[in-house]
Amino acid sequence: xxxxxxxxxxxxxxxxxxxxxxxxxxxxxxxxxxxxxxxxxxxxxxxxxxxxxxxxxxxxxxxxx
Length: 65
Known about the structure:
Layout: H1 2-10, H2 15-25, H3 30-44, H4 51-64
Helix pairs in contact: 1-2, 2-3, 3-4
Protein backbone atom coordinates (compact mmCIF):
# COMPACT_ATOMS: atom_id res chain seq x y z
CA UNK A 1 0.00 0.00 0.00
CA UNK A 2 2.80 2.38 0.90
CA UNK A 3 4.47 1.99 -2.48
CA UNK A 4 1.23 2.83 -4.30
CA UNK A 5 0.71 5.86 -2.05
CA UNK A 6 4.23 7.06 -2.86
CA UNK A 7 3.64 6.56 -6.57
CA UNK A 8 0.47 8.65 -6.33
CA UNK A 9 2.31 11.44 -4.52
CA UNK A 10 4.70 11.62 -7.47
CA UNK A 11 1.99 11.14 -10.12
CA UNK A 12 -1.53 11.68 -8.71
CA UNK A 13 -3.24 10.51 -11.91
CA UNK A 14 -1.35 7.20 -12.19
CA UNK A 15 -4.26 4.89 -12.96
CA UNK A 16 -2.32 1.71 -12.35
CA UNK A 17 -1.17 2.81 -8.90
CA UNK A 18 -4.70 3.96 -8.02
CA UNK A 19 -6.26 0.68 -9.16
CA UNK A 20 -3.74 -1.41 -7.25
CA UNK A 21 -4.02 0.75 -4.14
CA UNK A 22 -7.77 0.20 -4.11
CA UNK A 23 -7.34 -3.54 -4.58
CA UNK A 24 -4.76 -3.75 -1.78
CA UNK A 25 -6.96 -1.76 0.59
CA UNK A 26 -9.71 -4.36 0.25
CA UNK A 27 -7.63 -6.64 2.47
CA UNK A 28 -7.03 -4.18 5.29
CA UNK A 29 -9.60 -1.36 5.24
CA UNK A 30 -12.92 -1.81 3.44
CA UNK A 31 -13.99 1.82 3.92
CA UNK A 32 -10.76 3.10 2.44
CA UNK A 33 -11.03 0.57 -0.39
CA UNK A 34 -14.44 2.01 -1.29
CA UNK A 35 -13.00 5.53 -1.37
CA UNK A 36 -10.01 4.44 -3.46
CA UNK A 37 -12.22 2.56 -5.93
CA UNK A 38 -14.40 5.65 -6.32
CA UNK A 39 -11.32 7.78 -6.95
CA UNK A 40 -10.06 5.30 -9.55
CA UNK A 41 -13.40 5.27 -11.35
CA UNK A 42 -13.51 9.06 -11.46
CA UNK A 43 -9.99 9.20 -12.91
CA UNK A 44 -10.33 6.33 -15.37
CA UNK A 45 -13.91 6.18 -16.62
CA UNK A 46 -13.20 8.31 -19.71
CA UNK A 47 -9.69 7.05 -20.41
CA UNK A 48 -9.08 4.87 -23.46
CA UNK A 49 -8.03 1.35 -22.60
CA UNK A 50 -9.47 1.42 -19.08
CA UNK A 51 -12.97 0.13 -19.81
CA UNK A 52 -12.36 -3.40 -18.47
CA UNK A 53 -10.59 -2.09 -15.39
CA UNK A 54 -13.36 0.41 -14.68
CA UNK A 55 -15.85 -2.45 -14.88
CA UNK A 56 -13.76 -4.48 -12.42
CA UNK A 57 -13.54 -1.46 -10.13
CA UNK A 58 -17.31 -0.96 -10.20
CA UNK A 59 -17.84 -4.64 -9.41
CA UNK A 60 -15.39 -4.45 -6.52
CA UNK A 61 -17.05 -1.31 -5.21
CA UNK A 62 -20.47 -2.92 -5.41
CA UNK A 63 -19.21 -6.00 -3.54
CA UNK A 64 -17.97 -3.76 -0.71
CA UNK A 65 -21.32 -2.05 -0.19
